[in-house]
Amino acid sequence: MKVFITRVIPEAGLQLLRDAGITITQWEEPRELTSAELIEHCRNADALLTAGRSTIDAAFLEACSHLKVVSLFSVGYDNVAIATATKLKIPVGHTPDVLSKATADVAFLLMQTTARKAFYHHQRILDGEWDFFEPKAGLGIDLQNKTLGVFGLGKIGFEMAKSCKGAFEMDILYHNRSTNAEAEEKLGARKVSFDELLAQSDVISVHANLSKETKELFNKATFAKMKPNAIFVNTARGGIHNEADLLAALQQKTIWGAGLDVTNPEPMDPENALLRLPNVCVLPHIGSSTEGTRDQMAILAAKNVIAGLRNEKLPKVVNP
Ligand code: DGY
């Protein structure tokens, strides 16, 4: 059996595949594969393990319908035509849970770096502008006892809420389709309507999937419903916010600041004006990038491949 892997992944996952007798081909060039290259490489493979931004659309799946499994090196699966995979009986695996804490830690980090204008002050030092003490310059805002609004309270949102509660005794609001009983019981979280979340939160942290319903949900109209002192944090998918509207909301002081680990589009243009605003901190989609987490993701992605090739249920499957 053969697997094609679209990136060099941690050894922990490769070893499991080798131990299962699977032949591995990895794409080692430092660029995305084109759609044609991806199809070409998958023609001779029984499984695809994909990391990065490759689009696994209907055309790809139909051209490679012989694949016995598609294994994603991510929790998100918005890049995959799931309905087509299901129709073609190709199971799609992903890597939830193992990256929840690392990703939530980046949301927590961005909330704090934004609130204290950390990247702006770092840049001042680089620019030789650290001269004398100015009591009223470059001030941040306090987070103690403020209100966190979690948009999409699943495993990652829960970890973010827990950190905010523990570190800053923040009140937790959330907006979800379902009720999160654990968050309500352990963190005193309160489920509210989307409009209430916008109106009452001092920090809004996005932890939802990108879907038709969430695409650019954070836009001119919704930023206008947020508090002028609010910080918008997005570590989920850049497509959930409209970036031009976010820039305008920050420039016009409709909201106070933004911390982004995901941008719309990715990669972000280095000339993007957001990068020059003092109340904005942007990271290049590093939510899950710790050594331990990436090892766990590689192991889970490999287990999904192995199960798929053995016609067994994948440990973490997206489509039934
Ligand atoms: C995920 O796991 O979905 C990360 O955002 C990487 O894409």
UniProtKB/TrEMBL annotation:
Keyword hit for Oxidoreductase: yes
UniProt similarity note: Belongs to the D-isomer specific 2-hydroxyacid dehydrogenase family.
Species, as recorded: Flavobacterium kingsejongi
PANTHER family assigned: 2-HYDROXYACID DEHYDROGENASE-RELATED, GLYOXYLATE REDUCTASE 1
Annotated GO CC locations: cytosol
Residue ranges constituting the D-isomer specific 2-hydroxyacid dehydrogenase catalytic domain according to the UniProt record: 3-319
Regions crossing the membrane: none
Keyword field contains NAD: yes
Keywords in alphabetical order: NAD, Oxidoreductase
PROSITE patterns: D_2_HYDROXYACID_DH_1
Protein name listed in UniProt: D-glycerate dehydrogenase
InterPro entries: D-isomer_2-hydroxyacid_DH, D-isomer_2_OHA_DH_cat_dom, D-isomer_DH_CS1, D-isomer_DH_NAD-bd, NAD(P)-bd_dom_sf
Domain of life, source organism: Bacteria
Occurrences of domain D-isomer specific 2-hydroxyacid dehydrogenase NAD-binding (ranges): 110-287
A GO term for molecular function: hydroxypyruvate reductase [NAD(P)H] activity
